[in-house]
Every structure is written in C-alpha cells, then in structure tokens.
DNA sequence: GAGCACTGC
C-alpha cells in the first residue's frame, strides 16, 4: 500500500496526459479511416483532444514523409496559436520548428515544420499561390460546425482539389448534429459505386465519433413563457444563488446594453441581501470590453463571492471560463443579416438554434455536473431551427466572390457551396464588383485591377480606393486610412461615465472634412508625436492594441503594393492642416469617392441623410465627427442598422460632381 | 441629441 499523505497539497496537472484523453483509444480506428477514405469526419466535443492529438497521430503514422505537411485550420487566431503551443510542448519541440502556426502578421513556421496550425482564411490565401495546396498531405478543418464563411468556402475548394489530388486526405471536425451534412456534401454526386440497394456511397466520407463529455448537465425549462427574458434572467440568478450549491453562473444575453443593465441591477439587489450570506459578484463580458476589464472574468472570485458573468455569444465558442456550474440561456442572440436589395447590414435579435442552445448548455459541465436554465419553454425549444443560418447566407459576398474569381473559379454561381447563398446576394456582389472595375462585361476578373483587388487584404471598395490613390497623389495617406478603417473596432476607449472626456479627446484630432481625415490625424500623431508608445494612447484615450494593429496592417498593405510594383512615397511631409495640405485633403476625398461612390448620401434639411435613390433614411452614427454637423454630399465606409435606425459610420464630405466624374456608369441614370 | 453580436485576410 502506498503511503499517501492526504494532508499534502495536490497540484493539478496543467494538461491532461495525452493517454488519458478519450481520443487515445480511437487512435487505430481513426488512422485506418484516414488511410482508407479520402474524407474523415470526426465528431467530438471540446476537450476530447481532437485538435491536439489527431495531428500527432498522423505525423507518427508517416503522413509527413516526402516533406509533406499536415495543416489544421482554426476559425480564430487565438485558437491557432494556443493549440500550436500546446502541441509543440507535447511533441517536445520549440514552436516554429516541427510544430508551428501561421496567422496574419505572424508566421511561426520553418523548413522543418511538419504540423502547421493556421486560420482558415489564411489557407484560402495560400491557395492563390498554390491552387492544389500541394504542400499538404492532410488538411484538417477544425470547428467546421461553426460554419464561418471561410471554412465553408474552404470545404468547397477542398472538394474540388480532392478530385485532382486523390492522395490528399481531408479531416473535418464537427459537432454531432451536422456530421451527416458534411458527409453528404462530400459524397455528392453519388458516384457509380452506389450499391444495388441505392445506399449512398460511403467510400468517400466516413464518420467517426469520439467519446463525449464526462459530466452530465441537467436542462431545465420554463413552465410558461416569459415576456421579459432580461428580468427573468436576473431573478433566475438570485434563485440559483439562494437555492443551489456553490458554483459560478454564466448568463447568455444579446448585447452590451442588456449586459450593463443586468450587471447594475444585480449589484443593486445583492447589496440588499442580508449580511453573512454569500454575496454575488456580477461581471460583464463582451468583445468590445477593454482587455483589462475582460480579465476579471477569468480571475477566481474572492472568498464568499459567487461569480455571475453576463455575456454575449463570445462565451459560446471563443472564450472558455473555468468553474462555471450554472448556465442561464436567454434563448436569443444578435445576428448579422444582410439585405441584398439595399446593401444594408443589420444586427437583429434572433432566437438561438438548437445547436447553439446545446453549445451554451455545454458550458456548464466542464469541471463537474452542471445545470442549464433555459428561459423558454420546452415547446419553444422544439420549435427552434436545428442550426443557425450559415454566415455565407447572410453576408455581403463581394470579398469572397472576388477571392473565388482569383482562384480561377469563373462560374461562381455554380461553385459547390455546402449551402448555396441566395442568388440575390451573389448578384448584388457581382454588380458591385463590376461597378468597381474588378470584373469585365463577361464577369471575368480584370487584370491587373481585379486580381490586385483580390490579393489586397481589405474589402473591395477600399481595395479600389487604394489602387486609385497613386493617380491622386495621396497613396501614403490612403494607406493609413485603409488600415485605420479596417480595424473593426472603436479606437476610442470609453470609460464608464466619461463620455465627455472621450469626446474632447476626439476633437483634438477632428478634421473639418470628416472621419477619414480625422483617422489620418490620429494615426499621424501616434507614429510621430506619440512615438508609437502606449503612453500617448493612454493620454488621448486611444486603444493602444488597435493602434499597434493599424501599424501592422498598414505595413502589410504597403508590402502588397510594392509587390505589385507600386512605389509608396513616404518622403512627403506628414499631413498637416496648413494651407498647401488642403489640396491634399481634397485629393484624398476625391480618391475615397472613386472607391466609395456606391456609399454616397446627401444630408436633408432635418439633419438626416438619404441615399442616392432617396429610399433609405440614414443617420450619422454618434461616433462620427459628422454627428450633428451640417453637410451636403458625403460618402461613408459602412452602414449598420440597429433597432429601428440605420446608421452610417466613418463619413467624409464630398462634392456631388465627383460622383459623376468617377462613377459615370453607376450614376448615369440619376 | 445619442450607440455597436462575433470573426478573419
């Protein structure tokens, strides 16, 4: 008998030893399937070890002979890096050697790399250079069930590539509900091998299921529907707090406003709880939250506190919080929708799908048995769609159509999509690309313009603006504006109750001509006066991480242009507001019009904007310098509809005549 | 006079 000292403090292992993971006992079966069938669909929950173990099994089984490599795609950058780090550690190598990763701005691979993790978008880009992805012996598409546009397109490409490269092995990792969809996709059209009983040909794609989770989760429904899920969520939190044993709570809501409201309400009500009992620590979590405030969510709650996290969908897949025992699911999510007729994107509160509800519930039982409180009835649950409408069916497809064309897929309408997007969406995208000059009368990619637009890592209208910039003599400035507008986030840090401060910080950089010139001023100040330091950002309430990112994006775009043989002259004096520069400002606005003519609007006497056809009322977004300012004609970067208002963001003044000058075809009838 | 789900090249 071993002489255990039960009083000793045990330190839990940082990682579960690989041989204890459920996947270990499926190793032989898995390798057999990959050997014998071109496509293997692996069904397994988070924590089954599929992302970390499968690549190592394959490497040991000889799939990297002849210098070929194993590629594993992830939908997110963080996943690609963290999984690579972990596999490198298990493999016993430095990351970047036998095991590496590649994401935008960071290529941590070398000649000796055999197992490579990368984002799905980046693998599509690799196909531009190497159409058959010939370096890879196996490609594993991880988290395919999330159905991101990139992974959907990647699957379509892989299906095509497979026909020319029978040696290529494809592995798709998926959640249970959708495994059959993937198999059907790759098995179509049923080839001659179809059996006499009409049974589908299983030779192409096989499914293997890995053991699921270890801890059970109780699902509880409401007996009668609620009219106010926010209020119900708050009261449920208190019910759990008083009736259920220890364990943190995760509440799924739809957005920032709701979350802030809930956090405040819980803080107020818990203050009224009698002293002595355990207290509640309510915390918000959404992607827009500054990084330092997000950190609290991962820290252990102080003694005698129960952590309650009110979160958006970030916690459904992207972020994992330890110690969650209870999940409260509002049953709703904000989803992007795209109206092909107006070209307007909207964010709409939508009921979740069954798959999404399962994913949310699963967040409860990661470390011990858990409970999930669904704020809807079981009947409502039954009426929910099985899965969320894939992103590809509700997005602006122009950037992806451009990529497909550059990959040599001319007939995009007949591309083999996992689920085809509505024809209207495709037509709208083709029309836009045609008006920008990326496609010719036969819908063929133009050269060099269209091809270059496809290669630039910015959306088509900005790509056109960039490629037009040399003729306006403002390439250096447009490069900066392109980098700043493609950040996808607010560069201004908004502290609670300090709106005034943010506003005055912003006005220091304000340009009369609009937001694009203001962004240019901010960047110029950051790299010159601010010496790219965080102190400058701190003093001016700017998001340092985003500013650093802008520097990277700008450098990357500049490299692309130089590869096209376009010289970027940075020797000119930095932008200033002095007299000779005003001509430069006009050139910049003219150049922006050459790319953004489709996003033009005119201010009405009541201060709102109307698009050119006059059909849509648009409001300047409160984050814009043009908010509550007088203007006539403007162009804008993007339009977003929320609730019942349609906002335009990143706005600059232009002259009406410029629209006719740079887009005569587009505006000839008006 | 008032506001933004989440990714990615």
TrEMBL record:
Domain Helicase C-terminal: 229-408
Pfam families linked: HA2_C, Helicase_C, OB_NTP_bind, WHD_HA2
An example Gene Ontology CC term for this record: catalytic step 2 spliceosome
EC number, UniProt record: 3.6.4.13
Residues of the Helicase ATP-binding domain: 31-195
Keyword tags: ATP-binding, Hydrolase, Nucleotide-binding
Keyword Hydrolase: yes
Signal peptide: none
One Gene Ontology MF term: ATP binding
Protein name: RNA helicase
Species: Thermothelomyces thermophilus (strain ATCC 42464 / BCRC 31852 / DSM 1799)
């Amino acid at each position: 008998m071993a002489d255990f000292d039960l009083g000793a403090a045990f330190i839990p292992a940082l990682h579960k030893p690989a041989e204890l993971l459920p996947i270990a006992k499926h190793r032989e079966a898995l390798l057999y399937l990959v050997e014998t069938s071109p496509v293997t669909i692996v069904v397994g929950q988070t924590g089954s070890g599929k992302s970390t173990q499968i690549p190592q099994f394959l490497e040991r089984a000889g799939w990297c002979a002849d210098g070929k490599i194993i590629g594993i795609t992830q939908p997110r950058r963080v996943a690609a890096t963290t999984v690579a780090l972990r596999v490198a550690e298990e493999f016993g190598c430095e990351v970047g050697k036998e095991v590496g990763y590649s994401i935008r701005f960071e290529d941590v691979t070398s000649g000796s790399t055999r197992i490579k993790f990368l984002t799905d978008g980046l693998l599509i880009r690799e196909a531009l250079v190497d159409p058959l992805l010939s370096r890879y012996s196996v490609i594993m598409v991880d988290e395919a069930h999330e159905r991101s546009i990139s992974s959907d397109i990647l699957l379509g490409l892989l299906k095509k590539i497979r026909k020319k490269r029978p040696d290529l092995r494809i592995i798709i990792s998926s959640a249970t509900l959708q495994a059959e969809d993937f198999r059907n996709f790759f098995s179509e059209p049923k080839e001659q091998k179809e059996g006499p009983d009409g049974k589908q040909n299983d030779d192409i794609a096989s499914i293997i299921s890995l053991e699921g989770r270890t801890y059970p989760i109780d699902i509880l429904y409401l007996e009668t529907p609620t009219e106010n899920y926010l209020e119900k969520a708050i009261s449920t939190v208190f019910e759990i707090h008083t009736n259920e044993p220890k364990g943190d709570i995760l509440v799924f809501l739809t957005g920032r406003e709701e979350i802030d409201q809930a956090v405040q309400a819980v803080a107020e009500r818990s203050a009224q709880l009698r002293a002595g009992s355990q207290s509640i620590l309510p915390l918000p979590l959404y992607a827009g939250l500054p990084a330092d405030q997000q950190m609290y969510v991962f820290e252990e709650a102080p003694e005698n506190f129960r952590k309650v996290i009110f979160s958006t969908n970030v916690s459904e897949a992207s972020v994992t919080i330890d110690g969650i025992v209870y999940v409260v699911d509002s049953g709703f999510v904000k989803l992007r929708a795209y109206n092909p007729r107006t070209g307007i994107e909207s964010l709409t509160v939508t009921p979740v799908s069954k798959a999404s509800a399962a994913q949310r519930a699963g967040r409860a039982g990661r470390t011990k048995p858990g409970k999930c409180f669904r704020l809807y009835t079981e009947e409502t649950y039954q009426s929910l769609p099985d899965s969320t409408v894939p992103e590809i069916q509700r997005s602006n497809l122009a950037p992806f159509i451009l990529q497909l064309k550059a990959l040599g897929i001319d007939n995009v309408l007949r591309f083999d999509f996992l689920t085809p997007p509505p024809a209207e969406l495709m037509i709208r995208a083709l029309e836009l690309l045609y008006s920008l000059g990326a496609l010719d009368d036969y819908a063929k990619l133009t050269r060099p313009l269209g091809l270059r637009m496809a290669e630039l890592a910015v959306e088509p209208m900005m790509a056109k603006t960039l490629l037009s910039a040399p003729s306006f003599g403002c390439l250096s400035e447009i490069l900066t504006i392109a980098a700043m507008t493609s950040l996808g986030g607010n560069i201004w840090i908004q502290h609670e109750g300090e709106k005034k401060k943010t506003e005055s910080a912003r006005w220091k950089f304000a340009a009369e001509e609009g937001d694009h010139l203001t962004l240019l001023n901010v960047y110029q100040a950051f790299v010159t006066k601010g010496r790219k330091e965080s102190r400058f950002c701190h003093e001016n309430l700017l998001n340092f991480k985003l500013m650093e990112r802008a520097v990277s994006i700008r450098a990357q775009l500049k490299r692309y242009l130089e590869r096209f043989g376009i010289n970027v002259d940075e020797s000119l004096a930095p932008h200033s507001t002095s007299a000779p520069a005003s001509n430069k400002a006009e050139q910049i606005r003219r150049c922006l019009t050459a790319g953004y003519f489709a996003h033009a609007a005119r201010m009405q006497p009541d201060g709102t904007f109307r698009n050119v056809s006059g059909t849509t009322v648009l409001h300047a977004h409160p984050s814009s310098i043009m908010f509550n300012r007088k203007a006539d004609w403007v162009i804008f970067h993007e339009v977003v509809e929320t609730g019942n208002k349609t906002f335009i963001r990143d706005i600059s003044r232009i002259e009406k005549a410029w629209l006719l000058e740079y887009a005569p075809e587009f505006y000839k009838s008006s």
